Amino acid sequence: MPFTPLHMGPGMAFKAALPRHFSIVVFGLTQIALDLEVLWHLVRNTDRLHTFWHTYLGATLLAGVLTVLGKPASQWIKAAWNHFVKRRHALDFIVSIPTTWVASFTGAFIGAYSHILLDSLYHLDITPWQPWSTSNRLRGLVNPLAIDGLCFALGLAGLVWFFARERRKRKFINKPAKP
Question: Is 21 exposed, middle or buried (0-12, 13-18, 19+ CB in 10 A)?
Answer without folding.
Answer: middle
